[in-house]
Specification:
The complex is a heterodimer of chains A (about 150) and B (about 160).
Chain A lengths: L6 E2 L5 E2 L6 H38 L13 H4 L1 E7 L2 E6 L11 H10 L9 H25 L7
Antiparallel strand pairs in A: 1-2, 3-4
Chain B lengths: L6 H16 L15 E2 L11 E6 L5 E3 L7 E13 L2 H17 L15 E12 L10 E13 L2
Parallel strand pairs in B: 1-2
Antiparallel strand pairs in B: 2-4, 3-4, 4-6, 5-6
Classes of the chains: A mainly alpha (about 150), B alpha+beta (about 160).
Chain lengths: ~150, ~160
């Protein structure tokens, strides 16, 4: 009885198969994977910057939400950080208001969700909802461009 | 059952009534008659804390259920917010709300979310908000619980 991994020819003798170029294929896949990763990373940063801009426009009152500018510290503290190759974080810097010492992030959460005294101003959530489809679309395009071997940045 | 024509109000009212009937009001004996423990909007009427607000949270996502189909698989995001007088009360009520919503999905009863055609219950986030109280005021602690159900719009 023949083993499971042995192919028998029509005349009963085992057929031998030789696969060449495995090393080249692995190298090609690795290079392509790196291309895709780099392409997506570049697009991710670009989309992060776009969302940062949109968020600042929302805080400045140029979108549907009410304006949330008093000293300008909250507006100017919004930054985009690349956490890893697949994640960007957009939010206020870890700084506090001079005088009161209240962290900017604390003020941001009060404005975003409202309190017993003020109504909410959904800067973060509305910006995300408005631009979610566009951002997903652009990142998908970047992945497809990288897969096709095109440059991610034009 | 949640209806296509009134899916937002039906969903909100279902959650409001379910929480109202199944979460114990810590100040039920002293709460005044014109104040409610669970409400569908931010308090317009006199607010006596603790209280729970239930609102539609916007930002729904949809998927078409096939070519040339007008049926839509739609997410219904809901914000349940617990407003409490202290940390312990906030945490206790939040746990009770989550556990009630979690354990009321299936079972065939007319009061379950599945029976209301609200499927795939999901907790998207729980965000604590710490408010500073003025002098002599209670500083209200709140927890914003973002949940989501899916619903077939048009069925």
């Amino acid at each position: 009885m023949m083993g499971k991994d042995t192919i028998t020819g029509t005349r009963g003798s085992p057929v031998q198969m030789e696969i060449r170029g495995i090393g080249e294929v692995i190298n090609y896949i690795r290079a392509k994977g790196k291309d895709i990763e780099q392409g997506v990373e570049v697009e991710l940063v670009r989309q992060g910057a776009f969302i940062e801009e949109e968020l600042k426009n929302s805080i400045a009152g140029r979108r549907k939400e009410p304006k949330s500018v008093n000293t300008g510290l909250f507006l100017n503290s919004i930054r985009t950080d690349l956490v890893d190759t697949k994640t960007v974080k957009i939010g206020p810097l870890n700084i506090s208001y001079p005088g009161t010492g209240t962290p900017v992030a604390q003020i941001a959460s009060w404005l975003e969700f409202g309190t017993t005294r003020i109504t909410e101003r959904r800067h973060f959530r509305n910006t995300a909802d408005r631009n979610k489809k566009k951002v997903y679309g652009e990142i998908n395009k970047a992945i497809n461009r990288a897969i096709r071997g095109l440059k991610a940045l034009r | 059952m949640v209806s296509t024509t009134t899916y937002i109000s039906d969903t909100i009212k279902f959650i409001r009534n379910d929480l109202l009937n199944n979460i114990t009001d810590p100040i039920s004996t002293t709460r005044s008659t014109n104040s409610k423990f669970v409400m569908t909007s931010y308090p317009q009427r006199p607010a006596e804390y603790p209280l729970i607000t239930v609102r539609h949270d916007g930002g729904a996502s949809i998927k078409r259920l096939g070519m040339r189909s007008e049926l839509i698989w739609m997410s219904i995001p809901v914000e349940v917010r617990v407003w409490a007088r202290n940390e312990k009360e906030k945490d206790t009520l939040t746990q009770q709300v989550i556990n009630r919503l979690r354990s009321n999905q299936f079972g065939g009863g007319a009061s379950t979310s599945d029976d209301q055609e609200l499927h795939d219950f999901d907790i998207l986030s729980q965000t604590p908000i710490y408010e500073e109280g003025g002098e002599g005021e209670i500083s209200i602690k709140s927890m914003v619980i973002s949940i989501q159900y899916n619903f077939v719009l048009g069925s």
